[in-house]
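A common beginner's mistake is to predict each chain separately and then try to dock the pieces by hand. The better habit, illustrated here, is to supply every component at once so that their relative placement is modeled jointly.
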Amino acid sequence: MSQLDRLGRSHAEAVKNALANRERPQLDLTAMPSYPRTRRGLIIAVTAAAAVTLLILPLALLTDIPAPETTLPAVSAPTTTVPEAEVETSLPGWQFFDVDIPTFEGSSYETGNGAFYAWALDRLHMINLQFGSGAELPVPESPLEPRSHAALVWTGRSLVVFGGHTDDRSFADGAMMTPSDNFEWQTIPPAPLEPGPYPAVAWTGTEIVVWMAGSGSQPGSLPEPGPGQIAAYNPFLQEWRLFDSPPVEIADAVLFADGIEVTLVGGPAMRPLGVDGESHRMWAATLDTSTGEWGEPIGSASPVTDFARATTGPGEAITVLTSPTIYEIGEDWNPVGQVHHCPEELAAASGGGTVYLNGILDYEAAQDSRPFGGCTAYAWEGSLDGMDRIVEWNARGRPEDSARSAFIGVESGLVTLGTTEDGATLLGLYAPG
Amino acid sequence: MDQRTFESFYESDYHAVLALARVLTGDRGRAEDVTHEAFIAAYQQWDDLRTPEAWVRHVVANKARSLLRRSYAERRAIERLDAEPGVGADLPSDTEEFWATVRRLPTRQSQAIALYYLEDRPVSEISDILGCAESTARKHLSRGRRKLATLLGVES
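With all components supplied together, the output reads:
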């Protein structure tokens, strides 16, 4: 038995011993909905009614006796139609709030249950939809210089703001704010990286990992694809450590952390560029932050022609939305669905085995079988079957002028949506049925 | 279909499921909640469950995973609770540290390791519980063990 196995088994025994005397709670089974019996009853009723119909209906036709009315229980059809939606209409599950955020500058993050953060040029705004009725909560001024498009990530306790740019400068510093500690700010010293626009950030549980394109990139514009630079900051030790550059050349990326593994997904642009007709290649690679070693790069299965977004829920596969193919990234890029025209201003998030999308599409030809076809403002819900396979897309209606979503997030069974339109900001909460 | 009654299943498997929930959530209270919810869900679908042992553990693993990202309000409540001395200190500190290191691994790897050490399950049963192919479960387990050994500074 190896040293690890000895440790594992002894600590497993320690857990079992510690819990052995915990009393089993009494389950009040009589108070629970008797699902199996109800369903069995329904099946019996349906079967019996169908049998009666099958036996009596032909007999009635032959003997000219009026057939009795069947008493099949009403079964609701699957919800595949898009409900009509208007501004302020109370859609099932949706709640909307008009919130006035002075300058909404491209960075936002939601922590679930409607707690929502938006980074403006000069400060961080926090809004709690569910508990604050859309009211802004008091976050003190941050120690950071004004900037837009900073990357945000929630650690479970603090919100991290990192990087960003102004018209003439990019940043590689950041700060973290802890709501449970009187909204106090703690500065993050500059990363050992060349400042660049549009950083990507992830939280591993112990470290903030950041990726930057760097090397000659201009503030606010995407650089030429390159390996970029990646480093991790430990807020407990207040130390940075630099990793080797990734084995892929990209200009714009997102980072996903699953424990100590961090996956970098990117391409020439993860952001909308317009329909340019060119094809791009998307890449992914995984860094083991415990050893600092990169895995083999995972190149895309086929070139993509349109925009892309990547999303994942905790412990779920990374889903990358490109046109014409939706992929999941595992050992390879696995095609799981088709999209013939991705929406502009697309925001995507996933949770509980479902991918939620929100975006607009001004493309008249997109109709019929195209999952994003013909509509201008819908949130989309894709069902994942079994081990993360997208098999079906359903539309969920919502107000038209909330089309340009800034972000969408899924947590604790709630979908949070943020969007800007004509200077106003509309935030929404949706509880999936 | 399992021939046992739900009550005998609950009696025989409760503590093992609770232990799994405890190491995957890192918190006794949350573990008890997750275990309770999983058994209630099992009761509600009892007639349809072919392998309730695997099913209830699969539910616990998924519920524990979704707890990784909690709401702001819940977190604050938990932080206040954690600040009270004595609450949550139900395991020896070295055992707590070991399982905290396991939870740092990628989700599927930590689940596979918990099932391997806690319940001594073969890879075929781990794959049933995780809902993946046996080869995938084997990969999660071997990679997880290798990384865990690195993090703990021991030989695997």
